[in-house]
Amino acid sequence: MSKNRLIYLPLGGAGEIGMNAYVYGYGAPGEERLIVVDLGVTFPDMDTTPGVNLILPDIGFLRDNAERIEAIFITHAHEDHVGAVGRLWPDLRAPVYARSFTGHLAQLKFEEAGQDPANVEIVGAWPERIEAGPFKVAFLPVSHSIPESAALVIDTPAGRIVHTGDFKLDTAPGVGEPWDEGLWREATKGRVRALVCDSTNVFSHHPGRSEAELKDPIRKLVAAAPHMVVATTFASNVARVKTLAEAGLAAGRSVCLLGRAMRRMVEVAEKTGVVDAFPHTITPEDARDLPRENLMLIVTGSQGERRAASAQLSRGKYLGLEMNEGDTFLFSSKTIPGNERGVIRTMNAFSEMGVDIVAEDDRYHVSGHANRPDLERVHALVNPECVIPMHGEHRHLREHAKLAEANGRVSLVVVNGAVCDLTGARPHIVEHVEAERVYLDGDILIGALDGVVRDRIRLALNGHVMVNVILEGNEALGEPWVETMGLPETGRSRAALVDVLEQDLGQFLMRAKARTLRDDAAVEDELVRITKKVTQDEIGRKPEVTVVVSRLEG
Amino acid sequence: MSKNRLIYLPLGGAGEIGMNAYVYGYGAPGEERLIVVDLGVTFPDMDTTPGVNLILPDIGFLRDNAERIEAIFITHAHEDHVGAVGRLWPDLRAPVYARSFTGHLAQLKFEEAGQDPANVEIVGAWPERIEAGPFKVAFLPVSHSIPESAALVIDTPAGRIVHTGDFKLDTAPGVGEPWDEGLWREATKGRVRALVCDSTNVFSHHPGRSEAELKDPIRKLVAAAPHMVVATTFASNVARVKTLAEAGLAAGRSVCLLGRAMRRMVEVAEKTGVVDAFPHTITPEDARDLPRENLMLIVTGSQGERRAASAQLSRGKYLGLEMNEGDTFLFSSKTIPGNERGVIRTMNAFSEMGVDIVAEDDRYHVSGHANRPDLERVHALVNPECVIPMHGEHRHLREHAKLAEANGRVSLVVVNGAVCDLTGARPHIVEHVEAERVYLDGDILIGALDGVVRDRIRLALNGHVMVNVILEGNEALGEPWVETMGLPETGRSRAALVDVLEQDLGQFLMRAKARTLRDDAAVEDELVRITKKVTQDEIGRKPEVTVVVSRLEG
């Protein structure tokens, strides 16, 4: 009864936009040979993950089955697809395959994680195929907001899967391969068992627009700007960076790239040949000496990130450059939901400097993802036996499945941790594996459910009271000592909160029975209780409380 | 040389959307008699104000000059205009004037703050005038997203000011007075020294739409829904709540209001006569017994607030009611920038339940603020000698000023704390007063710059290490004791972080010179330094550190 089966298991990316990690398996149940598609990160926020550096998928399932992994494939070089590969690789130790631009950036991830970049093998596009156990995998070029994005055509003994990666239908993306419907038709012809498909823009009802449409508007905007122009976009959108730089040069401006990611992306793009003739740029040192009206800066920080170049400029000088009254700042980007506060903070800081801000304007930005009608076009083109939505929050996946079903197709929402059997007549969930999140916290990986971050959130919401008492036998030695952090100094009684606490805790110790004072746990419980009650009475909140009872040998 | 002057001083609302508090003064410099317009709150967020309950304007200037305050006027009952009046009033003790609906809600604010609601005097609309020292003030009705919003026509010996409050140009708002151009023309005719004007929607380029446009689309949506319908909007938008309820009844559904604010707003609207014949509603208890397809809930929580009815429903049962597969949830609202995460969290939770979500759809929502062309219409109608933008972030104020100037008007951006002299030929800033923010933190008001909240943010970002040592004379008594909160348990050395810390701190104490050990401050400094260094080495982050040195009499 151990008939071979073909399974699909998202470990990240199916229930969020970010942190992509997908697994395919073929073989007897529980013994499937596995391939991994993408190992990305997502970014922390103050609401749910204060102090966390990065969020990675929980690959416990893969770690437990590492010997079954044949290969890892990276579709493109966005952080949410490649960002975790270096750090997670030591648990997987399978060969990593990617095309040239993506592979070079994956190799940098290996270097950053102290791993050998030679584990990343650079491969060619379709019709080249990589054999990985029962899988034969080809990288099928597709347009996206980063060069050299690829779908995967995955042939298995149980049929073919087309895994789109991130994509849009852009026949003139500027940099990177255009959408080539003929190529896709040829590469995906015949029976396709499943189309596993990007869902990001399923709520956008108009057909997607081309990167090429931006050239004229951006050129006009830059030409008309009276003083310095600063533009921001995702550094990885090399086509956009090039369009911006060309607009600067066309307006007689020297162009300077600011931000490490910006320079790195252009370097790797040039090195791997995905862009040729990137416009000449100058250094920040040289930029400082130029008249402002002859200058254009292209900077990181389109999402208002506090440490990026745009935010630094919004706070004052950055590398000797600064914004002035009458300068223009162009957000050639869209604010990702959740990043609004940071972006708005940056905008208002520029506004206070008298900078003219151009933002949230469709003339200067197009999305990198296929819109609803584009998705329908790809469904029709590939004509799969079923559509499995991926790369979306739950609402995107559900809407995408409804769209496919409305067109008479079979579809199923498969969320992180759900193992979907693609072998039978209809795809169906057969089991669930752990697929939480892992936090890079400082230098340490911790589980999302370990409680560490929950405690930090509690400290932020409630403040902290620390109580120290020294006991000797059945009496307290001296007074209790209280310190607070993150709490108002004085409360209702107009006395210092620590004084009120020390007094009330001291009274308890004075009056407590000898039996209580010989029992550390009982003393501790009572001190916590009194501390919470007094703090609630004084300032109206129940703090986190840490009590340390030190006992001298009596 | 103490010529009388007319001044305008925003203490909140000019540099943010929220926390409105404006001051006008007339008299000799430094001795102006004052009136206050609106006393609102703004809401905390985890990024900048974790654990804070509410944010209020810093009215230090008013407190210091309380005897100069003639009166307080409340334009309308939105929280960002009325929310702080009860809590701040004890420092001001001037009569509060408002129209009926607004005044009743202001009186509730007084009750909540333990103050006498009789301090709020209900007054009529223009042409009724309130004399307040050198000011004569009339409430001029205007349409907005809450009933009975009013502009103020403020006559002073130095000329007339028109203070718009929040407004839109809606000739069919459903509930509340329609925009009446004739009335405005009459009330604002003659010389107007300054138009102090709402800037919220200055970036919206199309003319505003009417509340009335929503009736048909909402009716159709509710009629077509197969199962239960739940709709959310701001409770204070009584017109919208009524439109939603009428759509429910028209579709043969019973309507139930969920959420305290929702019921309170409708009650006050009925009591004060701003709405007559509000549709019949049923209790949650009765709703539970009805077939789902005959039911419509109208709930609080359009901004994803964690404790509101919508979020409660997204987490499961609420008052015995719950959402099921095939139900419809309508956000008849727009997500305020910064609230995206909460709204999206709610949406995805509903999506997991199989609920069909309708959101961010212009057919089911219109804004309550005047758009750019509407602002130009009002500028032209009032034809003031200068336009002072208010009610906006800096970028809104600046854009509004540029708009006025582009039309040949005098305009000036006046931010919180800037005292603007309106007497001379051109408005100009003459001085600055403190105008920070005050936090309601638990039950206590604390200053934004007190450091309390900054410490909580540090705890959230860095975690906390507490170190205890007991000294006697020049030696340590026992080992140091370490507790941590919000930090990973084990680090690079694979030993428990607290053990590594206790060992290294213990070694320091053992080896320290007698002179050092007699100096509490020196011991403390060194313990902090070692704790940070060891924690950095072990887990890659520098925590907050609290050291308590207890000294026994030697």
UniProtKB/TrEMBL annotation, chains A, B:
Keywords: Exonuclease, Hydrolase, Metal-binding, Nuclease, RNA-binding, Zinc. It holds the Pfam family Lactamase_B. It comes from the Bacteria. The keyword rRNA-binding does not apply. Coiled coil: none annotated. GO terms for molecular function: hydrolase activity. Residues 18-206 form the Metallo-beta-lactamase domain. The keyword Zinc applies. This is MBL fold hydrolase.
